[in-house]
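A.,

Following up on our hallway conversation. Structure tokens first:
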């Protein structure tokens, strides 16, 4: 709770003038997600469509925000809830919790964005020691009434009163053991009565109060508990993981209860209009007879496939199929549906656009285009660059000789290998120590979220495609296999027994395949993804499942390439990387780092250059380096013929090319002690000491090198120009661009540019070739961004080096801070994501925008790009589109992601402009 109380807080709540806090399901629609949350908005939408939705009402997110900000509910809220409860009671012909024929309600959370299992729900509110008798009489089923009552006390105790959930679960297990049964449905009314008594004793002992018998008190406390659940640790963690804003709040849905635990003609289920794992059309979902909804999602009892409902209850099945078709056509997307059947009557409890795997997302998007439900622009909004990146991960080699020990439900695809761990704490601990782990549980619950995030994959022995583990894993893009019943998981002894009696102990290596559901002992070798093979030109669309996926990716990429304005280049330093980048769709090289060309055999030449005492020695070293550099550029220009290649002149501190100061000191000391010749080592040590810097990333590097070491940059410019001339003579089409790094003032650029122009003119005269070599600079210092208008006078292009710009804006040393305190900053919510991963729009982004505007004000035809790591980050690509850059540049394997996101950004902005 916030300690800063609103001045309008009254004795009975916060006063907010003229705000409506409660909406009946008949009053809303699916467009009101900000106000009613996703669940409430969609319940209203289904009500408007005339679908069978139990009556109820929604308390808005605005009420939640007032409650969380002030610690009090709005003053008007109680009266509004009372008015809507009265209307509900009149409609249902019964009152909340009345002794003879009680109205029961559920109180459920419902944020704007789906957060499965992260917030609280309480079912069967209104039951008490008196009304349970009336429910039994009206239902004609004493067992059902006492089962519903024990569920209420269990959920209320854990959710509202903070009682440890395992205390209830242990009592339930003890009751089943005493009865010698394995599932709760085999407990009789008398057993459940005893269990209710036990549960109430647990509440009294742990919460310090009796379980409330007043139905309105139950409802009010449950509403507050749902509000409070917005700020639980697991909800905060999930929001950080999914980048959901923390200030949205949750709505609360109060819905009249319908019962799936009334016997074999009742049940509950979750259905998908398409397979969320593959995207294929068909009948997908889970059904559980004689159960309430939480039983399905929790995975406590294994379900039957939804298709079996046709045999169990054909009337309800046919009606459900018709409703699913209606909803998919209405929402124009895969729908995730929760339903209950009460004695043959079908009720719809929820619908939402369903979470899906990466492969399913691409297949479904193209299917919906073919069905005429959406257009290409909308198809691009149905997939993401992060999903495409998942599809490019390697997969298991099915031909490898490995030991398969089990098979479950393929809930979320991927090839995950790691050490088996049996609780979330261990998963997090081992992961932080650098271990790859697989979280193994009977079933997961919301408290396992941190372990699920830390693990490479999740394996459960219970639950289906709609269990908590499956839904959350799909949302996170995490590999998951559920319901592997043949595996016996013993979390207390921290082991898993597989068919044949083999025992997997904690720490043993296992592999899980989320695409097939197979579980293996040991590490399974991996092979390239078919999507990568497609981008490499080694796979084409055909008839099998992998080919269907490739075809869907091919079509979506074609949509993106037609829509995008941003061009996509590669960061590549050699011909091999350049050729791969070109196959992946690169439209040039945005960053060639020449320092990578000076390593290996050339290090000795660089050392000689650094140690040169005379101009003649320096010229000799540069003369030796020139043909090597020229050869590099000839190969690069050949690989990218016809496309631009931006070559960055030497950037890193010179000491990086010299031996380690400690190792060299030891060598000199040993040589002196042995009275051995060491003149060269001593000269080298003196040079290392001379060039040593406390903070080399802010020292002698970039343009400063070119100004301090005569001839270094002109040698590189000459190599570029001569290579371009040679390619032209060979009928090639070289399009070289020369980039000066780390410029902070226009005077630096002017001096280097004057020398470069002179060298290019000399090469043109000597070869008789006209060379149009653009000269520009990297904008990677705050001063460069702030004086971009001046720098543009001497630059034909800017390329934003956002790695260094982020370091210098934040005052971070990337090599140090990510290991030292970034984890704490992420956990505390200071960062939603590392600023080195996604661009900091408010700080670094503001400087980029300022430099774009100032640069183009000086030079309207100024070409603008980015070559830092952000060039391949999906969210950052959208920002670069918005501020008007011409291209992004990234590593070869991120090129498809950047192409897709550039298309999505253009499509999204066009849609916004149209609206």
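Then the amino acids I'd put at each of the 915 positions:
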């Amino acid at each position: 709770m916030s300690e800063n109380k609103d001045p309008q807080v009254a004795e009975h709540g916060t006063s907010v003038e003229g705000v409506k806090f409660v909406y009946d399901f008949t009053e809303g629609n699916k467009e009101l997600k900000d106000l009613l949350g996703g669940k409430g908005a969609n319940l209203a939408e289904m009500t408007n469509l005339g679908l069978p939705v139990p009556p109820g009402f929604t308390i808005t997110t605005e009420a939640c925000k007032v409650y969380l900000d002030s610690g009090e509910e709005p003053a008007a809220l109680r009266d509004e809830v009372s008015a809507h409860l009265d209307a509900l009671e009149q409609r249902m012909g019964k009152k909340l919790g009345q002794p003879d024929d009680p109205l029961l309600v559920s109180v459920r959370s419902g944020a704007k964005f789906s957060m499965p299992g992260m917030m609280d729900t309480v079912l069967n509110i209104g039951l008490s020691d008196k009304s349970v008798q009336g429910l039994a009489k009206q239902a004609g089923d004493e067992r059902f009434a006492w089962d519903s009552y024990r569920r209420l006390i269990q959920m209320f105790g854990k959710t509202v009163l903070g009682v440890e959930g395992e205390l209830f679960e242990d009592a339930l297990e003890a009751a089943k053991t005493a009865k010698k049964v394995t599932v709760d449905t085999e407990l009789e009314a008398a057993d459940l009565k005893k269990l209710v008594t036990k549960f109430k004793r647990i509440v009294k002992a742990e919460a310090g109060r009796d379980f409330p018998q007043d139905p309105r008190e139950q409802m009010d406390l449950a509403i507050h508990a749902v509000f409070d659940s917005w700020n639980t640790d697991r909800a905060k963690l999930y929001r950080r993981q999914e980048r959901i804003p923390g200030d949205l709040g949750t709505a609360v849905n109060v819905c009249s209860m319908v019962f799936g635990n009334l016997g074999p003609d009742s049940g509950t289920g979750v259905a998908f209009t398409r397979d969320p794992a593959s995207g294929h059309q068909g009948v997908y979902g889970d059904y559980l007879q004689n159960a309430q909804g939480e039983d399905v999602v929790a995975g406590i009892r294994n379900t039957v496939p939804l298709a079996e409902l046709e045999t169990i209850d054909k009337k309800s099945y046919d009606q459900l199929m018709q409703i699913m078709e209606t909803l998919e056509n209405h929402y124009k997307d895969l729908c995730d549906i929760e339903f209950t059947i009460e004695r043959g009557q079908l009720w719809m409890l929820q619908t939402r656009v369903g979470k899906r795997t990466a492969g399913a997302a691409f297949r479904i998007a193209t299917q919906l285009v073919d069905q005429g439900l959406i257009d290409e622009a909308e198809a691009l909004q149905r997939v993401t660059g992060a999903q495409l990146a998942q599809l490019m991960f390697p997969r298991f080699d099915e031909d490898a000789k490995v030991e398969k020990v089990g098979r479950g439900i393929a809930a979320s695809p991927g090839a995950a290998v790691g050490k088996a761990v049996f609780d979330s704490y261990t998963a997090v601990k081992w992961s932080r120590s650098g271990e790859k782990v697989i979280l193994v549980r009977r079933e997961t619950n919301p408290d396992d979220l941190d372990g699920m995030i830390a693990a490479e994959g999740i394996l459960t022995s219970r639950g289906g495609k709609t269990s908590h583990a499956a839904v959350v894993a799909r949302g996170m893009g995490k590999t998951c296999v559920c319901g592997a019943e043949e595996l016996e998981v013993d979390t207390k002894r921290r082991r898993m027994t597989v068919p044949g009696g083999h025992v997997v102990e904690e720490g043993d290596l296992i592999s899980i395949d989320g695409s097939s559901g197979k579980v293996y002992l040991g590490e399974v070798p991996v092979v390239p993804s078919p999507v990568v093979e497609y981008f490499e030109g080694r796979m084409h669309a055909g008839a099998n499942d992998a080919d269907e996926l490739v075809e869907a990716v091919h079509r979506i990429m074609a949509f993106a390439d037609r829509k995008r304005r941003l061009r996509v280049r590669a960061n590549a330093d050699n011909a091999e990387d350049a050729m791969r980048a070109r196959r992946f769709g690169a439209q040039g090289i945005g960053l060639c780092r020449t320092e990578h060309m000076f390593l290996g055999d050339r290090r000795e030449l660089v050392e000689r250059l650094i140690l040169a005492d005379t101009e003649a020695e320096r010229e000799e070293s540069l003369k030796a380096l020139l043909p090597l550099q020229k050869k590099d550029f000839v190969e690069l220009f050949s690989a990218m013929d016809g496309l631009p290649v931006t070559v960055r002149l030497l950037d890193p501190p010179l000491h990086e090319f010299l031996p380690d100061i400690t190792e060299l000191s030891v060598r000199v000391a040993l040589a002196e002690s042995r009275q051995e010749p060491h003149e060269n080592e001593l000269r080298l040590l003196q040079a290392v000491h001379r060039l040593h810097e406390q903070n080399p990333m802010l020292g002698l590097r970039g343009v400063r090198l070119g100004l301090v070491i005569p001839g270094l940059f002109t040698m590189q410019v000459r190599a570029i120009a001569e290579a371009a001339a040679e390619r032209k003579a060979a009928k090639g089409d070289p399009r070289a661009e020369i980039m000066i790094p780390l410029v902070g003032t226009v005077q630096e650029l002017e001096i280097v540019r004057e020398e470069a122009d002179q060298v290019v003119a000399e090469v043109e005269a000597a070869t008789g070739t006209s060379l149009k070599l653009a000269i520009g600079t990297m904008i990677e210092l705050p001063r460069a961004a702030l004086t971009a208008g001046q720098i543009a006078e001497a630059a034909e292009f800017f390329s934003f080096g956002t790695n260094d710009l982020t370091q210098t804006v934040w005052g971070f040393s990337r090599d140090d801070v990510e290991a030292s305190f970034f984890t704490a900053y992420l956990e505390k919510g200071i960062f939603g994501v590392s600023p080195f991963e996604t661009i900091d729009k408010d700080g670094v982004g503001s400087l980029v925008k300022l430099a774009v505007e100032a640069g183009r004000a000086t030079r309207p035809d100024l070409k603008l790009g980015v070559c830092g790591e952000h060039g391949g980050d999906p969210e950052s690509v959208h920002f670069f589109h918005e501020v008007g850059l011409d291209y992004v540049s990234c590593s070869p394997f991120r090129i498809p992601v950047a192409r897709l996101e550039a298309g999505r950004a253009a499509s999204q902005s066009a849609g916004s402009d149209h609206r």
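The CA atoms of residues 789 and 855 lie 5 Å apart. Curious whether your intuition agrees with the design.

B.
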